[in-house]
Design brief:
The chain is mainly alpha-helical. It has helices at 8-23, 36-48, 54-72, 77-87. It has one domain (8-94).
Protein backbone atom coordinates (compact mmCIF):
# COMPACT_ATOMS: atom_id res chain seq x y z
CA UNK A 1 0.00 0.00 0.00
CA UNK A 2 1.35 3.42 -0.98
CA UNK A 3 1.58 6.18 1.62
CA UNK A 4 0.11 9.59 0.83
CA UNK A 5 2.72 11.56 2.73
CA UNK A 6 6.50 11.35 2.79
CA UNK A 7 8.40 10.49 5.95
CA UNK A 8 10.67 13.00 7.67
CA UNK A 9 13.73 11.23 6.21
CA UNK A 10 12.25 11.34 2.70
CA UNK A 11 11.57 15.06 3.08
CA UNK A 12 15.14 15.72 4.26
CA UNK A 13 16.62 13.76 1.33
CA UNK A 14 14.30 15.48 -1.14
CA UNK A 15 15.19 18.88 0.28
CA UNK A 16 18.92 18.25 -0.02
CA UNK A 17 18.51 17.19 -3.66
CA UNK A 18 16.15 20.02 -4.59
CA UNK A 19 18.27 22.63 -2.80
CA UNK A 20 21.27 21.47 -4.85
CA UNK A 21 19.18 21.82 -8.04
CA UNK A 22 17.92 25.24 -7.04
CA UNK A 23 21.42 26.51 -6.25
CA UNK A 24 22.31 25.81 -9.90
CA UNK A 25 19.27 27.79 -11.10
CA UNK A 26 17.27 24.71 -12.12
CA UNK A 27 14.55 24.89 -9.46
CA UNK A 28 12.78 22.08 -7.61
CA UNK A 29 10.61 19.28 -8.99
CA UNK A 30 6.96 19.65 -8.05
CA UNK A 31 6.58 15.98 -7.11
CA UNK A 32 9.30 16.04 -4.47
CA UNK A 33 7.03 15.76 -1.43
CA UNK A 34 8.10 19.16 -0.16
CA UNK A 35 5.52 21.63 1.13
CA UNK A 36 4.39 24.52 -1.09
CA UNK A 37 6.20 26.93 1.25
CA UNK A 38 9.49 25.05 0.83
CA UNK A 39 9.00 24.77 -2.95
CA UNK A 40 8.33 28.52 -3.21
CA UNK A 41 11.55 29.29 -1.35
CA UNK A 42 13.49 26.87 -3.55
CA UNK A 43 12.12 28.65 -6.63
CA UNK A 44 13.23 31.97 -5.09
CA UNK A 45 16.70 30.46 -4.69
CA UNK A 46 16.73 29.27 -8.31
CA UNK A 47 15.59 32.72 -9.48
CA UNK A 48 18.36 34.39 -7.46
CA UNK A 49 21.06 32.19 -9.06
CA UNK A 50 24.02 32.83 -9.19
CA UNK A 51 23.89 35.38 -6.36
CA UNK A 52 21.81 33.51 -3.78
CA UNK A 53 21.78 35.27 -0.40
CA UNK A 54 22.45 33.11 2.64
CA UNK A 55 19.25 34.46 4.19
CA UNK A 56 17.20 32.80 1.44
CA UNK A 57 18.90 29.43 1.96
CA UNK A 58 18.41 29.79 5.72
CA UNK A 59 14.70 30.55 5.20
CA UNK A 60 14.33 27.41 3.06
CA UNK A 61 16.09 25.34 5.73
CA UNK A 62 13.78 26.75 8.41
CA UNK A 63 10.72 25.96 6.28
CA UNK A 64 11.80 22.36 5.74
CA UNK A 65 12.59 22.06 9.46
CA UNK A 66 8.97 23.12 10.12
CA UNK A 67 7.69 20.55 7.62
CA UNK A 68 9.74 17.79 9.27
CA UNK A 69 8.57 18.93 12.72
CA UNK A 70 4.95 18.74 11.56
CA UNK A 71 5.49 15.22 10.21
CA UNK A 72 7.04 14.06 13.47
CA UNK A 73 4.59 16.04 15.67
CA UNK A 74 1.37 16.55 13.70
CA UNK A 75 -0.34 19.83 14.59
CA UNK A 76 -3.80 19.77 16.12
CA UNK A 77 -6.79 20.62 13.95
CA UNK A 78 -7.01 24.03 15.64
CA UNK A 79 -3.33 24.74 14.93
CA UNK A 80 -3.75 23.66 11.29
CA UNK A 81 -6.73 25.99 10.89
CA UNK A 82 -4.83 28.85 12.54
CA UNK A 83 -1.92 28.40 10.11
CA UNK A 84 -4.24 28.27 7.09
CA UNK A 85 -6.01 31.41 8.27
CA UNK A 86 -2.69 33.20 8.73
CA UNK A 87 -1.59 32.20 5.22
CA UNK A 88 -4.87 33.64 3.89
CA UNK A 89 -4.33 36.86 5.84
CA UNK A 90 -7.16 36.22 8.28
CA UNK A 91 -6.63 37.17 11.93
CA UNK A 92 -8.77 34.76 13.94
CA UNK A 93 -8.27 36.82 17.10
CA UNK A 94 -10.32 39.67 15.56
CA UNK A 95 -13.32 37.43 14.82
Amino acid sequence: MKRDRPTADEVRRAFDAELANSLTGAGPRTDSGLSPQVEDLLWDIADAHPDVPDSLVNAARAAVDQQVHDIENPPSRAESLRRLAAQAGIDLDDE
